[in-house]
Amino acid sequence: MKLAGLKSIEDAHEESVWAVTWVPSTETRPALLLTGSLDETVRLWQPDELVNQGKMTGHCLGVASVAAHPSGHIAASASLDSFVRVFDVDSNNTIASLEAPPSEVWQLRFNPQGTMLAVAGGGSASVKIWDTTTWNLFATLSIPRPEGTKPTDKSSSKKFVLSVAWSPDGRRIACGSMDGTVSVFDADRGKFLHHLEGHFMPVRSLVFSPVEPRLLFTGSDDTHVHMYDAEGKTLVGAMSGHASWVLSVDVSTDGAALATGSSDRTVRLWDINMRGAVQTMSNHTDQVWGVAFRPGGMPGRLASVSDDKSISLYDYS
Amino acid sequence: MACVYIPVQNSEEEVRVVLDQLPREATDIIDILKAEQASLDLWLIIAREYFKQGKLEQFRQILEEGSGSEIDEYYADVRYERIAILNALGAYYTYLGKIETKQREKEEHFILATQFYNKASRIDIHEPSTWVGKGQLLLAKGEVDQAFSAFKIVLDGDRDNVPALLGQACVEFNRGHYSDSLELYKRALQVHPDCPAAVRLGIGLCRYKMGQFEKARQAFQRVLQLDPENVEALVALAIMDLHANTAAGIRRGMEKMQRAFEIYPYCAMALNYLANHFFYTGQHFLVEQLTETALAVTNHGPTKSHSYYNLARSYHSKGDYDKAGVYYMASVKEISKPLEFVFPYYGLGQVQLKMGDLRSALSNFEKVLEVYPDNCDALKVLGHIYFQLGQTEKALEFMRKATKIDPCDSQAFLDLGELLISSDGGAALDCLKTARNLLKKEGEEVPIEVLNNLGVLHFERGEFELAQQTFREALGDGIWLAFIDGKEKPPSIDANASISQYKDVHIFHQLEKEGHLVELPWNKVTTLFNLARLLEQLHNIETASILYRLILFKYPDYVDAYLRLAALAKARNNFQLSIELVNDALKVNNKCPNALLMLGDLELKNDDWVKAKETFRAASEATEGKDSYATLSLGNWNYFAAIRNEKRAPKLEATHLEKAKELYTKVLAQHSANLYAANGAGVVFAEKGHFDVSKDIFTQVQEAASGNIFVQMPDVWINLAHVYFAQGNFALAVKMYQNCLRKFFNNTDSQILLYLARTHYEAEQWQDCKKNLLRAIHLAPSNYTLRFDAGVVMQKFSASTLQKPKKSVDEVRSTVAELENAVRLFRQLSAASSLHFHGFDEKKIDTHVEYCSHLLEAARVHFKVAEHEEQKIRHKQEVARQMALAEEARRKAEEQRKFQLERRLQEDELKRVRQQEEQFERVKEQWKSSTPGSKRRERSEMDDEEGGNGEKRRRKGGKRRKKDKYSRSRYDTLEAEADMMEDQEELEDEDANTNYREPTGQMNEQDDEENVQDPLAAAGLEDSDAEDEVAAPSTTTVRRRRAWSESDDDEQQERQPGSSPVRENSAELRSDGEGREGGDKVNGEAALDDDDD
């Protein structure tokens, strides 16, 4: 497996680019790249030339996360002002503006079926699930407090939920928090199942393997990527190599490769079977906040975004 | 059958004395001789015969009788025979004295000999044989010069006197004048061609000494032809054979030696050479016997010295250093000048080195070096000794010389490399590389220590790839390869047990169960550790941890591996595991200062102040206060304690600071180059407000810290930036913070972003401030203080925009948006505060909300005003523009006018000139016919020129004007700004009336450390202090809030000492040191085993 640089856009945004996702193709257009930035905009890009397809404003403060509905028509973005803006990709019309005070919003993900939107709820120590037809709050999955702690205890704020991921079958939700624990929920029953321990620093990104539904990858500030069996509660492996925080992880559609973006300014490609890094891309000049494999068929594409305001596109083969 | 006849007195008869059958008792003969009054020459003949038969006693008796006073009287007129007898006695005693080993008796013999010769001289002072005898005696006594004059007297009388010639030759030989000696021997041979073989021996020796080995050999062989039993010639030939240094030569030499030994077992020279031979064949018993015999039979200094040397060498090689030392010493004592025989000095030096007597060893090796200034071994050993004596410079000098003399001596390069390691890594690397290549060329295995050190050097120079290769080469094949290459992976573990992942050795048990050999030779542990350390540096943490665990699995007492694992766990925030690992290390050695210090650090991280202090103290005691890290940690502790106190008790703060300073100074006194101590001292100075001093210190530390990969000191950058900030140099502070953030933290540190924001805040760069805060929030989402700060900045930005007398609609519009955001942020915080504890008082936030809402309303009004204003402005601008246009038009018209005027003037002038010329022409024409056309052309050229000049001038003028306009406009804006500032101040005063006070001025005046330390958070809170006066909050909230701002402090200060990297590195370096020590040891032994031949 191998990455080959295709195109890089310098100054794609006016400020740091913090979030990236692929909007799946529709009948009328191919898959697009969606990026969110500190400059309070969300922008659309057409691969492989990364032609700017539109700039969407409507957020105050930086855009921390973007997510696209599997249909490819709808996308959502979350910003530091704790709003989630749901909009039509092609027309840029706002469909809904979601907020669940006092919970702030961090990473957000649609479930593979497209019926739900999960939002990492930060200090509320919960994941908020929104219904994508009515845009009403469907459920709040709270991480149970450790026993014996009072609500006023300082440590409770450590279960600050940063990241969220759906299993490919949509039955499990995993969320990562500031203290490094990963919590697994039963999505259907809205029930907390168990914690996965091993990290002791914030887990900013996590993703399930599209091939093996139990296999969960987590990236943490402790510079490691962990592989968990989310059902069996076991740490399958730990991979080290980044010199600084792992900010973003994504698995290729064939489930063989893992891409990570890190504060050490590199994008790494990992062979999941070998459990080792096979390639390191160092074209970014600042922290790489997001990496995303294009869903669907060949040819494989990986996009990365960085604090250096640039977007890079790679061929994955 | 030889016989003498003693004539019987007064008769014709003779007594026949058969010389073979001399009576046993000399008295019988003496009686006959006396009775018959035999001539003295008969006495002499008989005595000589006794001597020949080895009957020395009889010989002596006869001669003594023959030299008695009776004889003197009786034979008074027989002079020559009397002299001969006396001389014979003299010669005999000379011989006795010569072979006598005991000093006193030797002297007695010599005295007797002298007496006899003197007596002989009294009979006839001119008798040459007496002089020859005297010469021999003096020679035997070693008084060469007097011997020379004695012989000279004889030779002056008779230049062909053979004994004198031989004597003189001997003298010259002893004086080292070999060619003179040779001449004398030759003359003796010419005069007396039948002289004994010994003369040719002399010739041989002279030739030998003169380096004419072939001729020497011929001479010796001739000696042997004449006298096959001549031991000296045999030995000499043998020595020559031995020195040929070929196997056949040595064999032949040894055969000759053996024959010599068989002929005469007491020739010390032969014995020594035999002993020497048996030393090499390892038959130490024979060596001792032979040398002891040699010692017994000779008192010739150099030969004895050689014997002692042989003996000492034998004991040396057997490892009996005491005896070896004694004999070397004895050998050395026999030598007057080291030049003669230098080996025992070398041996003695070696033994003394072994016994640890460096100084004596040094002087002995230096003697060796005097004789052989290019002896590599001596140079190397001297280098080694100087190094051990701490004189590294001298050591290096010697080692360098050794490598220069023999550029193929791998050992010398190794030693030099090891010496250089501590001072010059690059040179050391080159040396070790050369050594490695030499060893490889020689087909020898490169010692693991060398490869290890090479690897470490590469590592230190940041050449990780090379370092890794070298370490792998050093380690060779083994179970570790499976881990390094990732063939063996640790099995999955229960995620909830993963808390102790760095203690898991299950994998090794499993491998053993599967039949793999989990082995780790002891000499590879250090290298494996270093490799693991390298992998850490390459961020291959997982493999590194497995290797550390492998070390611990086989060597559970390897403390450094525990500490590295603990450090790994600590870096991953897994304090519980880290503490466990450190405790494991302490189980091995509960006084291990490194482990104690690490524990202290961890306890600090866990906020366990009292415990931490105790641990640091224990560490300091364990090292008897010599470990600067322990002292530093205590210093840091005191510094934290000074800042940390919730109620800022100035007294307590001062004592803690003083104590901290004292400790830092102590470290600096021990190690003047300790960056961390200097940094600490700088911090204390900054705390006390001596910013200039601290800035100097920080700058120096920063310079020193760059350039070593093991020294990572972001703290000093931050501190320097703090100082710049405190001094109001915001631009520099920003640059410094940004560089630090990028260089050391991969831009991941929200705290530094907060410092940055704070600096922008002070510099009133609101947007930069806000962006930095947003970045910080993004990095540290759970830090609500940052959100609060962001709110405050937006509020401040809006307020300041609204206070501007002139503002565009866009500005006001964005102000409104910012205010809405601020309100939202504060409301959120307010709502969240019911859910979480994050240190904010609800009421206070509400106040902010109220204030922002109030501002928002005001802003909306402003917005309308601004819109109106803008329209007005637009109108005004339009007017102004038109005015400007009119002005421009006017100016242009004016210019035009001027231009026209000028032109007209010029034209007038021209016209005038033309007229004049025309007139002139006309006059000329009148005078004589000419060509007016050319003149006209001239004129037109002139015209052009002038016009051009004019244009240029005009252009220049235009430019100047433009510049003026620019500077004027700039001035205008400055003025406007000044006006605005004034306005703002006024407005601020007004603001104060509306219960909101600006913190800015106050902060700058205060300039205390709190401001430097806890940035914007405090700024925001300071704001609210002012409000609190009005809002009258409960005191508890104030304290709680303080606590919060304090905890921010802690975070920062914990990082400030930057202690963990030091410790980790020093642990690493220490273990490297071990490796090097190991290498040293091996080398030291090797040096001793080096042979001196």
Automatic annotation (TrEMBL), chain A:
- Designated name of the protein: Uncharacterized protein
Query: Does DNA-binding count among this protein's keywords?
Result: no
Keywords attached to this Swiss-Prot or TrEMBL record, sorted alphabetically, are: Repeat, WD repeat
Per the UniProt record, which residue ranges are transmembrane? Answer: none
What positions belong to coiled-coil segments?
A: none
What is an example of a Pfam family matching this protein? WD40
Q: Which domain of life is it from?
A: Eukaryota
The cellular component terms of Gene Ontology attached to this UniProt record, alphabetical and capped at eight, are: Cdc73/Paf1 complex
Please report the residue spans annotated as repeat (WD). 10-46, 56-97, 154-195, 196-238, 239-280, 281-317
Automatic annotation (TrEMBL), chain B:
Q: Name one GO molecular function term.
A: RNA polymerase II complex binding
Keyword Iron-sulfur assigned to the entry: answer is no
- Keywords assigned by UniProt, alphabetized: Repeat, TPR repeat
Q: What InterPro entries does UniProt report for this protein, alphabetically? A: Ctr9, TPR-like_helical_dom_sf, TPR_rpt
Looking at the record, which segments are called Disordered? 917-1093
In Swiss-Prot or TrEMBL terms, this protein is called Uncharacterized protein
| Coiled-coil region(s) | none
In this chain, composition skew of type Basic residues spans 952-965
Q: Fetch the PROSITE patterns from UniProt.
A: TPR, TPR_REGION
Compositional bias of type Polar residues: which residue ranges?
Answer: 993-1004
Any GO BP annotation: regulation of DNA-templated transcription
UniProt repeat feature TPR, residue ranges? 128-161, 162-195, 197-230, 342-375, 376-409, 714-747
Give start-end positions of Acidic residues composition bias: 974-992
Note the Gene3D superfamilies from the entry: Tetratricopeptide repeat domain (1.25.40.10)
Q: Where is the composition biased (Basic and acidic residues)?
A: 917-927, 1065-1083
Q: One Pfam match, by short name?
A: TPR_19
GO cellular component terms given for this protein: Cdc73/Paf1 complex
Q: Which organism is it from?
A: Prunus persica (Peach)
Instruction: Report the superkingdom from the record.
Output: Eukaryota
